[in-house]
Amino acid sequence: MGDWNLSIGTLSEGAQSRLADMLDNAKCGWRQLANVVTEEPRFRCSENEMTSCSLQVLSPTGSPSRYLLEKLSERSCTLGFLLHCLKKMEHHEAVQYLTANVMERFQITVQPQAQHATEGGRVVLVCKAIGPAAMGYQWFKGKEEVMRIVRQPRPQVVAEGDSLCLDCFAEANPPPQYQWYHNKQPMPTDKISTLRILCVTTADRGMYSCRVFNLYHEVWSDQVHVKIGESGASNVFDVYPFSSYLNFLLFVKATDKVALLMGNMNYLHHRPLRAPMADVHEMTNLLRQLDFKVVSLLDLNWQEMHSAVTEFLLLLDRGVYGLLYFAGHGYENYGNSFMVPIDAPASYTSENCLWVQDVLQRMQERETSLNVFLLDMCRKRNLNDGVPPQPGQLKVTANIVFGYATCVDAEAFEVNKDDLSNGIFINFLKQRVMEDEKVTVMLDRVAEDMGRCEITRGRQALELRSNLSERRALTDRIQSSGCPETTSARNLQWAIAHVLPKSRNLQFDCGVTVQLGFAAEFSNIMIIYTRILENPKEIASCSAHLTDFTEGLDMDLKMSNQENLLDAGSLLPMEILLPAELPGLYTRLKGLQRLKKELTFTVCLQYKYTNLDEEVHERQTVTVGKPLVSKLNLHEPRLPRSYSASSSFDLHSFSHSSSFPEESGHCVIYSNGDKWNCRGKNKSRKIDIDPAAELCQGLKDFTSEELQCLRKVFRPLDFFHLFLRYNLILKGIK
């Protein structure tokens, strides 16, 4: 029988990770657990600890629930008390898993045997055991730990076109390297602990494992099975028990959830603001926990705001929840709201701003299931503006929610707290946004909270406008639509704007190895960090600085190459990038949306030999392409497009249509089922359009002329536009 008086920390890494997976949700997850454990005062989490929990989502492998379990373990929380709390939460799946894991005893079936070996020879020691499915092995040489896998990869069911992430982490000295295997064949990836495939196809299904090794030791991870299906729920019975699946279906409301968050602070001709950066950062963190695809952007000019909205609309489709949040200067005339870009002139009018009602109309044309606008801006009247523009006829959709930070003809205020500033609106909204309530109910509670605040009473009051007729909440779960192609297209389009350069190691002539790493703070702000991995004994001191960046970036040289993220101007916690015991230098790059060329910079290594006072410099130039949102070229004007519902592409109905010729430059493209003919001046060739996510792979061999023709023909058809655009970017076609 299991011992329920043992600490949570006695659970295997695999078991803790599995529990964390079950608790990483908004409805019955880690926040509810943190509430329940407070019946024992010593387990109560402070506000800072709860914030640290939520910030774990910013790490590619982070888990708020795992962080909370570690905190409870540090305070000697027993397995019995954890079980009691899970029962009180009525988290039946976690109760069942924990009970089975604790009650199942370990039994070693094969013991390692003593061996005699010659120096330089090979020794293989074998140990096998039966017990909980997620158990792990840890080897010791005497009392010294040899090599231990602390995080095993887990089986997954992934939809075509989605991203796959497998993680394996080991502790060893010297630091280990990782080699991933797919169906027992080595994969040509970097030797790092995380395997990422951005757009999976059926060719990626099968068994995965990881070989972990260093100069002296080698261990293998568990073999895990990755299934690729038409949608994420196609094989849900393989992962969840039937009762959980019924619960999943019962609450599914959205086909996807997408959010565009814009914060403008550094205005050229107006008073700068402090709150938008912290506000957008808080909202990004919270919405990601609710499974929103978040695009977060700071300090946008007029063109960049218009382009960002156009890209945002491409991510919307029938059944999707769309949320737009703006923090910055704004105004309202005759019921029309306007968001002010950072380059607006001193006496701006509607022509210099972004018109909210126009964005709403374009969102409606996408047939979204929920349109939420959270406008954290002033609503004073603009006397410079004359006759307001007249919006087109809005559809009666009963799915619109406007949450204004303040009422008509009033201002919105900021709160200064230490060096961090929050808007009043977000200061209260962040405490309620995770609640599993209808959006309007949640915002009503925020309004009540603001009304009890003495600072804002009589000066700022939240105003809610809505025609929402259904019970739709930001916490609603996602069920993919019946068309996996559109889901894959949306995932791909979002992924284009969120690709980070790969971490790399730079070898210098003096023998020093420098690690270069990258992290995203916002969709247009990236952190680059450097740290010394290897340092020869004859070198007394060394550091790696970044200089000579590509022109056009918004960066303060005085805040580059800082020893901590706070000094670099970042809100990211230090532990997200590097553990405290691994010092490095941090540089923050802003305004990536204005990057017109590939990002290039110089790594300057400065070092001193033990017997010399003179400092020596070595340099290496690094090019990392166009990271994050810079790939979208938001600085370029967008052509007007029609976003009517009729332009949405339905592969299943369209593939059975008759011939559909259309002139496009020197090529004519004809449809015949799912085959397309491309006829140029001197040639005719048949093009196979694969209606699945492999379309990306299928287009790589097309000529530039053919791709340009396809792009023009399918411009009204969003699905093809997304894939074609991605491939045109890869081929460098503008």
Give an overview in words.
- There is one protein chain.
- This protein is α+β, with helices and mostly antiparallel strands and 734 residues long.
- Helix content is 24%, strand content 27%.
- Strands 5, 8, 9, 11, 12 and 13 form a six-stranded mixed sheet that branches. Strands 16-15-17-21-22-25 form a six-stranded mixed sheet, with helices on both faces. The chain has a four-stranded antiparallel sheet with strand order 27-28-29-31, with no helix packed on it.
- Strand 35 (667-672) and strand 36 form a beta hairpin.
- Mean pLDDT is 77; it is low at 231-252, 641-703, 709-722 and 724-734.
Beta-strand residue percentage: 25-35%
Helix content: 10-25%
Number of DSSP-assigned strands? 37
- Backbone shape: globular
Number of helices: 18
Amino- and carboxy-terminal Cα gap? 66 Å
Low-confidence stretches: 231-252, 641-703, 709-722, 724-734
How do you describe this structure in short?
InterPro entries: Caspase-like_dom_sf, Caspase-related_regulators, DEATH-like_dom_sf, Ig-like_dom, Ig-like_dom_sf, Ig-like_fold, Ig_sub, Ig_sub2. This protein is α+β, with helices and mostly antiparallel strands and 734 residues long.
Which helices and strands, and how do they pair?
Elements: H1 13-23, H2 30-36, H3 47-55, H4 64-74, H5 79-89, H6 92-103, E1 107-110, E2 128-130, E3 138-141, E4 144-151, E5 156-159, E6 164-167, E7 169-172, E8 177-182, E9 185-186, E10 194-197, E11 206-213, E12 218-220, E13 224-229, H7 242-251, E14 252-254, E15 256-263, H8 275-289, E16 293-298, H9 302-314, E17 320-327, E18 330-333, E19 336-339, E20 354-355, H10 356-364, E21 370-376, E22 400-404, E23 414-417, E24 420-423, H11 424-429, H12 439-451, E25 463-466, E26 477-478, H13 484-496, E27 504-507, E28 513-522, E29 525-534, E30 539-547, H14 574-577, E31 585-589, E32 600-609, E33 616-623, H15 651-654, E34 662-664, E35 667-672, E36 675-679, E37 684-688, H16 695-698, H17 704-713, H18 718-731
Parallel strand pairs: 5-13, 14-26, 15-16, 15-17, 17-21, 21-22
Antiparallel strand pairs: 1-2, 3-4, 4-7, 6-10, 8-9, 8-11, 11-12, 11-13, 18-19, 19-20, 22-25, 23-24, 27-28, 28-29, 29-31, 30-32, 32-33, 34-35, 35-36, 36-37
Helix pairs in contact: 1-4, 1-6, 3-4, 5-6, 13-18, 17-18
